[in-house]
Every structure is written in C-alpha cells, then in structure tokens.
C-alpha cells in the first residue's frame, strides 16, 4: 500500500504504464515536455496576434486611401453644383449704391459710371404718332422711359428708354455710340434714391425699313429682365434717320 501511494505518477494518463524505474529515470524529460508545448503555443498565439494586427493596420491604411478618393469624388459634384454660382458670379458683384434685391421703381434720373454722365429720366407713354414718347428735341441729355412697359427693377421684361442723337453731335445718342463700353454700369434712380442698376452688354443696329413693330427687340413685358436704350443713327437730313441702335444692359442683381 505504501509503495503504491509513493508513486502516483504511475496512474497519470500522460505517463502511461511505464515501470517505476523508467519513470524515475525519464521524469525530468517527461515533465519538461508540456512546458515546451505551452511555450510553443504561446509563440504561435503571439505570431497569430501579430499577423492579425498587421492585417488590421493594412485595412486602416486602405480605408484612408479610399476615404481620400471618396473625398475627391464627392468634390466633383460640389464643383458641378458650383456651376450656378459661377453663372451668378458672371454678373459680377453688385456695385455700391445699387439695390441688391431690386424692386420696381419709377425712375427720375440716370447715370452711367464709365462715362460719368447723369441726367433726367422723363416718364412717357405713347405719343400722337403711336410711338413711345421722347424727350423734347431741345434736350440733348435726358432719357424717356416708356411707362406702359416694365419699370426698372422689375424681374422680367424690357425697360424701354430712348434719347436723342444730334447729327452735329453733342447729344446722349452720340455719346453712347462713341463711348459706352461693355461692363459699364447704368443706374436708374427714383425720387427716394433707390437705384436699379444694369450692366451694359451689347448693341444692335436695325434699319428703320427693316424694323418689325411686332418684334420684341424693344417692347417685351415677359422676357428676361433687361434695360434697352434706343437712339437714332445714320442721318439722312431733315430730321430723318435711317436706323436705330439698341443698347442692351442686364440687371446686376
């Protein structure tokens, strides 16, 4: 009984059925086996953890690159959506003194920044000949605004204005044809000091014989907002002019 109890290793499944002398002689090697196995397992686990960590680090790097590409791609629609802003910027900044949110006004004076000219605006309807009324022939500088059409500052339609040209020079028509430049600011101001501003864009000449009174070259209540100034050109003599020049300007706001 004493001998059996003094060798409990003989009953250990990890040792098997070896005799007591063999167990005693190889006890050190057998007892060291499990320790190396544990160390090996720990090393393998450490290598696995390292590999997994490396995979996650690489994924993080890949996500950063994808994020950068996504940012670049998402910037493209922003650039496209900026196209209307570029279109709006095409008008340029609203000049000082101009209404940023225009509303219809009744003009009493005008001025042109680039030409340093300023004069009255007269309100006129249809005259005895069926045409839009004009300033007095003796008035070289004033404009007549056709008060049966859109008012300056309106959101649509053409603001029709006219002035005189003198065949010897010196009237506003002569000055416009000689000195009005693309981009010049035309200001129309009411009695309260509110100013609707337009930026000059281009001009068109039409021969009187070719003019179609039913066209919208001058009179238009529903088209895009514009200011149109019409003056006479090509003097024939005896107050007769062969053509009209139309100056078109777009709202600055």
Report a brief summary of the structure.
The protein is built from four helices and eight strands, in the order αααββββαββββ. With about 250 residues, it is of the alpha+beta class. Strand 7 (about 225-235) and strand 8 form a beta hairpin.
Count of helix runs: 4
Major sheet, described briefly? Answer: 8 strands, mixed, barrel
Structural class, judged by helices and strands? alpha+beta
Strands of the widest sheet, in order across it, are 1-2-3-4-7-8-6-5
Fold and architecture overview:
The structure is a single chain. The protein is 32% helix and 25% strand. By secondary structure, the protein is α+β, with helices and mostly antiparallel strands. Strands 1-2-3-4-7-8-6-5 form an eight-stranded mixed β-barrel. Strand 1 and strand 2 form a beta hairpin.
Topology, pairings included?
Elements: H1 2-5, H2 20-25, H3 27-90, E1 109-112, E2 117-124, E3 143-146, E4 158-162, H4 172-179, E5 185-189, E6 195-207, E7 226-237, E8 240-251
Parallel strand pairs: 2-3, 4-7
Antiparallel strand pairs: 1-2, 1-5, 3-4, 5-6, 6-8, 7-8
């Amino acid at each position: 009984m004493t001998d059996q109890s003094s060798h409990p290793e003989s009953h250990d499944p990890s040792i098997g059925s070896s005799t007591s002398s063999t167990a005693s002689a190889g006890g050190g090697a057998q007892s060291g086996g499990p320790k190396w196995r544990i160390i090996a397992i720990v090393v393998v686990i450490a290598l696995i953890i390292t590999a997994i960590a490396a995979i996650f680090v690489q994924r993080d790097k890949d996500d950063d690159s994808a994020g950068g590409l996504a940012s670049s791609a998402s910037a493209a629609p922003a650039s496209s959506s900026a196209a209307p802003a570029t279109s709006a910027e095409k008008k340029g900044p609203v000049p000082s003194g101009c209404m940023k949110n225009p509303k219809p006004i009744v003009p009493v004076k005008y001025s042109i920044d680039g030409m340093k000219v300023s004069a009255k605006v007269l309100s006129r309807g249809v005259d005895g000949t069926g045409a839009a009324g004009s300033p007095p022939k003796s008035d070289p500088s004033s404009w007549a605004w056709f008060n049966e059409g859109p008012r300056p500052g309106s959101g649509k339609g053409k603001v029709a204005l006219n002035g005189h040209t003198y065949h010897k020079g010196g009237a506003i028509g002569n000055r416009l044809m000689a000195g009005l430049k693309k981009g010049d600011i035309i200001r129309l101001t009411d009695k309260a000091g509110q100013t609707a501003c337009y930026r000059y864009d281009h001009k068109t000449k039409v021969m009187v014989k070719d003019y179609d009174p039913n066209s919208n070259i001058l009179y238009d209540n529903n088209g895009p907002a514009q200011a149109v100034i019409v003056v006479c050109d090509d003097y024939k003599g005896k107050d007769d002019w062969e053509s009209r020049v139309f100056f078109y300007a777009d709202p600055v706001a």
